[in-house]
């Protein structure tokens, strides 16, 4: 199976332009970038893909050993870039993909020009001894993972609208719910464990390229202190607090997200 | 069993002052008003209570027939007011208690001077045919109730921090999680069904007293359009959009909440 098939890679935009690679978050897929990509297609070669187990990737390629840490996902990103012979890409990662992008850039800096991190968090758990606020108490995360395991569809329907926020526009939460529900429960659970129980704080200072931290207002997954922490620990980063609320500004507030990205690029 | 014991009524503040009655929301109890009451204790007689099945109420008094609609809870409120011989009270209701207060005021207007509604919603389900946005799709609410039923503690730990918002201050979400978890699962499930599947839109125009609608920003339970709807349908109401985020401004932003209430009172 080719890597491009495995990750359902699709290419568009300016053929010989620099690459802009979009990496979706937990329970999502490449279609969720649809409001952003047109703004960059004139100048950039747009690279979209789905992580294995998500969207239209090859489910058979799922390997619970490989994907038992974010490194496995970072390997996927690097393999896609190698396959396409891409260097100096702008990598746009949503949520957990911000850290996946950071790990990939640390491994092969030449492949990245910069990282755009949409709602990043290097650690979701609070760490009192270090004075670190991630937003989640250990009991809450255990409950979240238990609840996910006992009733994945119910969990998805409960959580997705909360994560999306913007209940004024229910179609947004509905899209995220449907996307969560389409994801294989076992794969989703492992990805959630890897995501929510991980700790990438020590990786941030090693990121070898400049970054943009896009932080939303009232994001139930990544609170503002977390975005500020990421900004502070990255060697070279811009920080933008969006007026967009929720955890998915690329869907709920694309114009503001595009404007911040254009200023950075 | 006396009504004051049943609902764990506690009195404080100015003994001969007008009454200010505080009614908690789903999975909460009277202790959650502790940041607001001191600001009103000089002028008002402060009345706190717990709904049956919540806080330190008499669990044995729970009656699944009586509490199968919000009317049962409104009866509790009226019985407490009768027992204390209270008329012309300022009734402060959080979330579902806003509608409970509305129902009680419609039944016995003389007992109420005004209603303060903190994060009210007359209907959580969207109603496309009426062009009404409540924030929740039917599938999402079914999923939420299913998930609650299959793993109440996991559901509580997942949901409470999202409902509270303000992940920057994890102690807030933790308090709500603990309060949800202390509630009897069967009682909580019935209260959630009654709350989330109810429709009190037609009651709003009947509210016979003036009201204050306190709407939060980025509230995953009651979006802004819902607060605006409540304001529009009430015969006489003030509307304040708080800069406070989440669904519990009385805990997360007491100063702003108090200021809005003082202007109204």
From TrEMBL, chains A, B:
<protein>
    <submittedName>
        <fullName>Sigma-B regulation protein RsbQ</fullName>
    </submittedName>
</protein>
<dbReference type="InterPro" id="IPR000073">
    <property type="entry name" value="AB_hydrolase_1"/>
</dbReference>
<feature type="domain" description="AB hydrolase-1">
    <location>
        <begin position="20"/>
        <end position="259"/>
    </location>
</feature>
<dbReference type="InterPro" id="IPR029058">
    <property type="entry name" value="AB_hydrolase_fold"/>
</dbReference>
<dbReference type="GO" id="GO:0003824">
    <property type="term" value="F:catalytic activity"/>
</dbReference>
<dbReference type="Pfam" id="PF12697">
    <property type="entry name" value="Abhydrolase_6"/>
</dbReference>
<comment type="similarity">
    <text>Belongs to the AB hydrolase superfamily.</text>
</comment>
């Amino acid at each position: 199976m080719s890597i491009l098939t495995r990750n359902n890679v699709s290419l568009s935009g300016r053929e010989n332009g620099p690459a802009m690679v979009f990496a979706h978050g937990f329970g999502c897929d490449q279609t969720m970038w649809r409001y952003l990509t047109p703004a960059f297609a004139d100048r950039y070669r747009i690279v979209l893909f789905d992580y294995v187990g998500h969207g239209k990737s090859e489910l058979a390629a799922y390997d619970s050993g490989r994907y038992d840490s974010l490194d496995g996902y970072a390997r996927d990103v690097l393999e896609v870039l190698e396959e396409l012979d891409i260097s100096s890409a702008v990598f746009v990662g949503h949520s957990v993909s911000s850290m996946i992008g950071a790990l990939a850039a640390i491994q092969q800096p030449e492949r990245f020009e910069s990282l755009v991190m949409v709602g990043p968090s290097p650690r979701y758990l609070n760490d009192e001894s270090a004075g670190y606020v991630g937003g989640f108490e250990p009991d809450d995360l255990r409950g979240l993972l238990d609840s996910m395991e006992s009733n994945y569809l119910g969990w998805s329907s409960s959580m997705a609208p909360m994560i999306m926020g913007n209940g004024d526009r229910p179609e947004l939460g509905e899209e995220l719910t449907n996307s969560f529900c389409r994801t294989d429960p076992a794969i989703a659970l492992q990805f959630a464990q890897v995501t929510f129980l991980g700790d990438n704080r020590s990786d941030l200072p090693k990121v070898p390229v400049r970054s943009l931290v896009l932080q939303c207002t009232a994001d139930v997954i990544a609170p503002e202190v977390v975005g500020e922490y990421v900004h502070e620990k990255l060697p070279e980063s811009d920080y933008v607090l969006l007026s967009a609320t929720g955890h998915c500004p690329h869907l709920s507030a694309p114009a503001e997200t595009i404007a911040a990205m254009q200023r950075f690029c």
